[in-house]
Amino acid sequence: MSEQEALFLFLMALGAFFMPFLSKRLMLPAAVGEIIYGIVIASLIPYGESQLVMVEYFSTLGFLILMYLAGLEIDFERFKALPKNELWLYLLTFIPVAAAAWYLSFKLELAWAFAIIFFTSGIGLLFPVLKDTGLLKTDFGQKLLIITMIGEILTLAGLTVLTIISKYGITLNSARQILYIAVFFLVIYFIMKVLKVMLWWRPDLQSIFLEVGNPTETGMRANFVILFAFVAFAAIFEIEFVVGAFVGGLMFALVFAGRDGVLDKLGGIGYGFFIPIFFISVGMRVTFNDFVQKDVIFLASIIIASLFITKVAGTILLLFSSIQKPKLMLVTIGLSFPLTMLVAVSRICYDMGLINKMETSAVLLASMISAVIFPWVFKGMIAIIMPSENISK
């Protein structure tokens, strides 16, 4: 490890520790504060990419853990409890969202990666907002979480298709790659079935995957084995590695219901150090000078508006759902600040060369602004539309 790497790791650890406190004072999401901290580092301390190999390693590991946790946090028991016709309606909601996202990216003459960016949904920031407003355990809060979970899964699926087409074009190679993905999911399904049968015969084996707090931390070790196994599977089938991490978390969530201890422990490891390192490193890719360019500000405004417009298009179908009509605007706003997933999508699109640095800066700026504005509007509207259910102080 070089002196430069040691210095940056120290600065990042310092930021990971202090930024949650500072972000809370400034009424910002912690991830936004961490990105801003990374921008400060990049603006004040010059560095070369070759000097930060270790930092990039920790950042990538944080990214993998973030996507694994995104899959692990999805509660499939909520899906099972929902009537099938309602669940299908929630799924169909994202067809007009996808159509609006594609139309806007085409009409605005943007790279077609922006169709995925405009479509993006994620529960990363919505979950704490619902908890803060007291809606997490309500019927409406649960339904909004389910809708957002579906959007998050579809975002990763769309990103996978995007990467295939951008790499191979609309050719037989693309068809072959999609076949690989089908095989990938069949393998996952087979593994899941085998595990369920095994655990049915030997329920005591669950402790290997779920037990935390013991001297050897077998639960944590098992989860890291699953994480890297699915990353390896994704590499074999030439699928984006973060999709493998996300699917690994999904599989674990499907097989193991009582995973709260694992989720807390792995979340503590991830959100305690590795995930903040990822967000700080994302901020280090840009400087404040990048954000004050007119093109960046203009494109960021378009992205924020498009995130909202596409979700409005999806809300139309929800008129036929059991969600009360006055609450549909809350659904639209709740889907419009996918901070964590938007940062992840922009990182993948930039690494693949689908968007340039200016566009990446605009996406980051849009993700931070939307993560501040939309939750504030969401909370304000709750106080008006459903004051009896809002128990936030």
Largest sheet: none
CATH architecture: Up-down Bundle
Beta-strand percentage range:
under 5%
Strand/helix succession: HHHHHHHHHHHHHHHHHHH
CATH topology: Na+/H+ antiporter like fold
Number of strands: 0
Question: What is the count of DSSP helices, taking H or I runs of 4+ residues?
Answer: 19
CATH class annotation: Mainly Alpha
Distance between the termini: 48 Å
| Overall shape | globular
Q: What's the pLDDT, averaged over the residues?
A: 83
The percent of residues in helical segments reads over 70%
How would you characterize the overall build of this protein?
This protein has a single domain, classed as Na+/H+ antiporter like fold (Up-down Bundle), CATH 1.20.1530. It is built from 19 helices and no strands. By secondary structure, it is mainly α. The chain has helices at 3-25, 30-44, 53-72, 76-81, 84-92, 94-107, 113-119, 126-132, 139-168, 172-201, 206-210, 218-236, 241-255, 260-283, 288-291, 294-315, 328-334, 339-351, 357-385. The mean pLDDT is 83. The protein is globular and about 60 Å long. α3 packs across α14 (260-283).
Question: What's the arrangement of secondary structure elements?
Answer:
Blueprint: H1 3-25, H2 30-44, H3 53-72, H4 76-81, H5 84-92, H6 94-107, H7 113-119, H8 126-132, H9 139-168, H10 172-201, H11 206-210, H12 218-236, H13 241-255, H14 260-283, H15 288-291, H16 294-315, H17 328-334, H18 339-351, H19 357-385
Helix pairs in contact: 1-2, 1-14, 2-14, 3-13, 3-14, 6-7, 6-16, 9-10, 10-13, 12-13, 16-17, 16-19, 18-19
